Amino acid sequence: MATLPGSKAVSVIKKAFGITSVDLVIVLGSGWSELVAALKPSNSIPYSRLPGMGKTSVKGHAGKLHLLKESGKTVLIFQGRRHFYEGAGWDPVLMPVYIAVRLKASNIMLTNAAGGIAARLKPGMLMMITDHINMMGTNPLLGPHNPMLGQRFPDQTEVYNRTLCRKLKAAAGTAGTTLASGTYMAVTGPTYETPAEVAAFKCLGADAIGMSTVPEAMTANAAGIAVCALSCIANSASGSSEVTHEEVLANTTRVMPAMAKTIKHFCKSLKR
User: Fold this and answer.
1) What's the pTM value of the predicted model, to 2 decimals?
2) Computed over its alpha carbons, how large is the radius of gyration of the chain?
């Protein structure tokens, strides 16, 4: 029977954190690292101790795994992600999902910094992803079928779990934060989009665009894990002005205090 990668990493996690299962896995994207200090996790280990994760190569991705105990829930926080454009294949990108499956996580929250395509989305806003468009030109479920990731042909009618999304939106409201909602488009990167591409993607129905999240969402959904996801609109993907990674990080960092409160309320709403 096929097995998922990540067995060695999970053994390290169980020993280091003294856990056998988790309630929620959170993956922090570009600019979201500041969230960790506000949440005050109880324990941490670097990705270098997790076989299969590999070293992060992008600024703003700290490369640490944290254990958080919040409202009686056990939460793993991946402070930084691996990206497909780094060239190491799918396993490092999907390792948080593999670990979530092995630790019987019921829920996963994915975060990213994204460019706003819809005119209503301004830098500094938070958008809850309600659907996505995969324009990466590939799919993380290609290759031999692994039964641990569900069916060969997983349904994607509701990748972003509606019940979990309602809880996230309510948690944000309790924390005094308003979440927009919309469709996220994933491209491979690492280049930003041309003006013509932005115009085309807008016609296709994309509200925001980035270089991550969709592979993890597709895989977690296929495996039966409830998925929710948040984009911090870090820049305007209008194609009319230059975009820098520094701008992306700065705009994302500004909203982290509000997100820390949101996650605390969100954890309270989760069932064990």
Assistant:
1) 0.93
2) 17
